[in-house]
Amino acid sequence: MNATRECTAVMCFSSGTGGMERSAVRLARFLSSITTVVLVCKKGSFVEKLYHEENANYACETISFFSRTFSPFMLLGARSVVNKHDVKNVIFFGASELKTLYFSFLAKKLNLIVWHGTTKSRPKRDFFHNLVYSRVNFHVALSKHLIRNVKNIVPETPGVKYRVIRPSFDFNVNIKDEADVNNNAISIVHVGRVAYGKGQVDAVLACNALKNSGVDFKLKLVGSADNSNYIDKVEDTIRKSTIEESVSLEGYVESVNTYLEQAYILLFPSSGEGMPNAFIEALHYNIVCIAYDNTVFPEFLDMGFHVHLVKDSDIAKLSSKLVQVVSDLDNEKLKSKKNMELAKSHFSVERELSEWREVLV
Question: Which of 35, 240, 256, 267 has the smallest count of CB within 10 Å of its CB?
């Protein structure tokens, strides 16, 4: 490890098992190439589990506490970690725990960075939030959409800075041999956790239009449905459709690469994303991507990618666009080829490391 920045603590005290928790562990691992890193999390949490599952070259400190709103145990534990490791940078993943951390960091000279990965809805502009956020040096978000959201929700305190740092992807892409799309079922994939707003129902409804147009296709819905009753609505929509035999629920998979290698189209009608990993991964392949025109997705057009966006939540327009793309699929795939090189540039490891170096001390 070639440490070029001061010791950095990545703090995530969530008890959840979703994207934020994975992102915290991923960032700790990623930054360990340029700084000494310590991951700080709740004892017995999913974050700790992820840490132990990988052969980590950085430390992990756990803290036992009961309340995330305000906890003396978290306060003292976080302060102890900062002292023990001589921490100079703190990257915080979360929300409510920041109240406790404000007091943990009193009289400490720290570069405090708050990471934002999802859209927030409740304003935090009361006196106490103004006090807590006055300690923050940087707000780092995954997209311009999220930066705008942060500025609308979180107090803009004196001296605070805002940065967009998009995640990087470093994997080998195997592009399938071009098949004759006139003689093969067109493979369409949706990747994402099965939950309200993620778009599985809209994807199924849109594919009905392909059946009506006489198109042979397969729609694969890839993603876990843990703790979600939305799966019942997805299954009911599939049963009531005319395309039940053409749709498969794949569930959780270790790697989506195989599905992306086989797909011609990513159908991703999400109601909103901070920065969708599945969409970014698909851009590394020669896949035609279709999404709703909301939240972060217009930024992909701004970056020069060939993607299709349709009016938000308009299934009729989504269906029409899907039929249009399929009817001109050879030409669409030619236009999408440029996405592979653009993705390597916009989401490169070197670019992300450089941007984090500018934020860390």
Answer: 240
